[in-house]
């Protein structure tokens, strides 16, 4: 390792979080491990390999992500959460035994024009109120009946997605759940999948046959507030860099680009080897903590491409070479996300390829 920065990924914790998702259903449901966007920045292949024995299947956003898994010799079912975008993808879907989601008439038209050779499973999406992808209940019932009659469709799994499951008391949750269960009832309760991480943790009535845990696998709570069920999740990624310089600055000096930080009294300042070129957000607030030897030190001045600067007043013993945790075991990615006005999902997926992933068991 040259530049001192790394994302340490604890695969044991990942596994524990996956099993915890299944435990939430009393092990009655199967679970698709959602590994889209390079497994939320954790590395899709390493993540899928680590879960290979346990996982009932994987979910990704697109065929490129699915092929990555197949090329790594992952044999488990792989679901394409947005299905296919054009007819060209159908051959590969069939050849690699992928399970596309179907959410539009256009996709069904494509399918009828290019009937696949080997029968396959599809996931049919009902729009229960998110109003992004999926069929209205009436359309859904009609499409379901058509699809189940086609000789090349092995199975149709009914699915939908929550808009507000991270706010367990939001009235839309019940509305979506009712819409889903009533539509399924009309169809004689076929296999179904509704729950993302927050619903797995907070809405047992949404579990059905297939869970779809994403963020919880990576040990980050899907909730903005403390939640009992989420407390057991184990952080998977610990993002660390190092102190590469320490300076005493006099009152009246400024720090960094734009000279935005004015030193008001003598300041011990440290320079840390991470910046927005690594995916650490440039727009994060001043005062965001980093952890050095267990002690929190706030960011001062602007985030640069390769460095940040921190106030070492709370830890004057700091030495060049000390490890600096940006998030992980001592500082949750959720807390850091609040300083960046975003959610952990975005911080994790934005860590760039420049940051080496280091896998531990
Ligand atoms: C990303 C995604 C999930 C996983 O969501 P989390 O909140 O990360 O658990 C589940 N289902 C669908 C359709 C998704 O797109």
From TrEMBL:
PROSITE patterns: ALANINE_RACEMASE. The modification N6-(pyridoxal phosphate)lysine is found at residue 36. The active site is at residues 36, 257. InterPro entries: Ala_racemase, Ala_racemase/Decarboxylase_C, Ala_racemase_C, Ala_racemase_N, Ala_racemase_pyridoxalP-BS, PLP-binding_barrel. It catalyses: L-alanine = D-alanine. GO terms for molecular function: alanine racemase activity; pyridoxal phosphate binding. GO terms for cellular component: cytosol. Its EC number is 5.1.1.1. Pathway: Amino-acid biosynthesis; D-alanine biosynthesis; D-alanine from L-alanine: step 1/1. SUPFAM superfamilies: Alanine racemase C-terminal domain-like (SSF50621), PLP-binding barrel (SSF51419). Substrate binds at residues 132, 305. Keywords: Isomerase, Pyridoxal phosphate. Residues 236-360 form the Alanine racemase C-terminal domain. Its cofactor is pyridoxal 5'-phosphate. One of its GO terms (biological process) is D-alanine biosynthetic process. Belongs to the alanine racemase family. Catalyzes the interconversion of L-alanine and D-alanine. May also act on other amino acids. This is Alanine racemase. It comes from Zooshikella ganghwensis. The lineage of its organism: Bacteria, Pseudomonadati, Pseudomonadota, Gammaproteobacteria, Oceanospirillales. The gene is alr.
């Amino acid at each position: 390792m040259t530049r001192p920065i790394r994302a340490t990924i604890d695969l044991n914790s990942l596994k524990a979080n996956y099993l915890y998702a299944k435990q939430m259903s009393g092990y009655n449901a199967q679970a698709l491990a959602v590994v889209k966007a390079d497994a939320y920045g954790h590395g899709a292949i390493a993540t899928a390999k680590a879960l290979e024995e346990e996982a009932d299947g994987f979910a990704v956003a697109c065929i490129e992500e699915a092929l990555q898994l197949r090329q790594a010799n992952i044999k488990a079912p792989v679901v394409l959460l947005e299905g296919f975008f054009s007819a060209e993808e159908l051959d590969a879907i069939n050849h690699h035994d992928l399970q596309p989601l179907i959410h539009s008439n256009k996709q069904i038209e494509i399918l009828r024009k290019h009937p696949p050779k080997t029968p396959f499973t599809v996931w049919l999406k009902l729009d229960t109120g998110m109003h992004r992808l999926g069929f209205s209940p009436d359309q859904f019932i009609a499409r379901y009946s058509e699809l189940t009659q086609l000789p090349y469709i092995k199975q149709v799994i009914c699915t939908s997605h929550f808009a507000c499951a991270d706010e367990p008391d939001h009235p839309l949750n019940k509305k979506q759940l009712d819409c889903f269960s009533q539509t399924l009832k009309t169809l004689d309760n076929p296999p179904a999948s509704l729950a993302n991480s927050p619903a797995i943790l907070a809405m047992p009535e949404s579990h059905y046959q297939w869970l779809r845990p994403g963020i919880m696998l990576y040990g980050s709570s899907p909730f903005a507030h403390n939640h009992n069920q989420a407390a057991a999740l184990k952080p998977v990624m610990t993002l660390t860099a190092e102190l590469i310089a320490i300076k005493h600055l006099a009152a009246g000096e400024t720090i960094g680009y734009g000279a935005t930080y004015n030193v008001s009294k003598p300041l011990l300042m440290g320079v840390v080897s991470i910046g927005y070129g690594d995916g650490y957000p440039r727009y994060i607030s001043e005062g965001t903590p980093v952890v050095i030897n267990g002690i929190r030190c706030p960011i001062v001045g602007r985030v640069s491409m390769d460095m940040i600067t921190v106030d070492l007043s709370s830890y004057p013993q700091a030495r060049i070479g000390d490890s600096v945790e940006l998030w992980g075991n001592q500082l949750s990615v959720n807390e850091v996300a609040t300083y960046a006005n975003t959610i952990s999902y975005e911080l994790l997926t934005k860590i760039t390829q420049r940051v080496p992933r280091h896998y531990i068991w």
